[in-house]
Amino acid sequence: MTTTPVAAPDPRAHILTAADSPRWLQRWSIRALALLGWTVAFKPLPGPRGVIIVYPHTSNWDFLYGLLAKWAIGLPFRFLGKASLFRYGLGTFMRAVGGEPIERGSAQGAIARIVERIEQSDFYWLALAPEGTRKFKPTWRSGFYHIALGAKVPLGLVRIDYRVKQVRFVDMLELTGEIERDTAMIEAVFAGCVAFHPAQAAPIVFGDIAEKEKLQT
Fold first, then answer.
1. Alpha-carbon distance 212 to 217, whole Å?
2. Could you tell me if residue 103 is inside a domain?
């Protein structure tokens, strides 16, 4: 199931259409995106559980296009958000669309709880933005990587590409646990993807791993 693209993805492949979508919310979302000039590309999932990373994330517009794409696909994907987004009435909306507040406590403890949740669920695909913020950061957060490895599930990669105006959820990776090899595969999938604010897109480097390498030099 490991894929390493050698050429730019064809934006015309795997595009969802309203005519082929069975539910009204899917059709409405596809048409709403079309009015904005956007499309969604999607291939069927390889199984009922997995982790998804969404990249790049540099603007609030990413959430709008990502949510419309989620509705267009028609599957109950989950996503993590900072706790402040789940306060008061906004929390009701965020939970209704699949959001879960980021848990407090140690990162390792949170990762272990998410892995357990994935393993105990009949269907659970969790989406994360590895940059963790819309502002520029020199590294990614590696929580998604440890979750996918710990739960032994595929890693789905979602491109939000403003160059071709497409949300693309086609590529799946089976992680090996070898950092350099896995990073190279992830970079290959996201190559050429253009952010809303290109200068704010983080390089694909895992922060905690980069820090360890720095200490060893």
1. 9
2. yes
